[in-house]
Amino acid sequence: MTQVYAATELSTPTRYRSRTAYDLAAVHAVLDESLHCDVAFIRDGRPVALPTMLARVGKTIYVHGSSGGRFALLDGEPICVTVTILDALVLARSWMNHSVGYRSVVAHGEARLVRDAQERLAAMRGLIDKMHPGRSDLSRPPTAKEDAATAIVALELDAVSLKTRGDHVADDESDLSGPYWAGTIPLSTQRGPIRPAPDLAEGISLPAALDCGGLG
After folding, report:
1. Domain coordinates of the chain in residue numbers?
2. From which residue to which does the signal peptide run (predicted)?
3. CATH second-level architecture of 17-190?
4. Mean pLDDT per 10-residue interval, the chain, length 216 residues
């Protein structure tokens, strides 16, 4: 049986509802694939949106920032987290029917400043392993000073939805016989060749876990 998130007033779109889904696995797949998100909130009466990395642990999103920064002030505040993956440019015959193929997750809720030591550690581990699976075991964990300087903010996935558009061209029928080319250009984010740090100590070789045919 497919598990789904409950549709709420906040997670129900006003347009293109046919593109919206609440399937738990599909929502999680987009959150896990994307390396970044935008966190939106109100500060001093003005809208603010900050780009940052994210990690998902279960049904919770985690982001981090400086304990002296704006994320540290979000405890109990309403926030919105958005993630968008662009899969294709859709080039139509008419200007108005140009579009993009995408997968997008929007999550609303109340920010929670994470104070529990074990949850903080799990969240930070999740963020590091998001860069590369198992990376947290191949790098130094934070010192007490570094930990104190870091704010971890959690958002429970209680009001979340997924919206998608494929890469099909949707031109008006009257344009189909026109002289203009139409089609799609696929987009993707790829990892390039690994480059060791120039100050890497002598004798330290590339960990096998990172050696993916020359790619990170």
Report:
1. 17-190
2. none
3. Roll (2.30)
4. 86 84 95 97 96 97 95 96 98 97 98 98 97 94 96 97 94 96 96 92 89 50
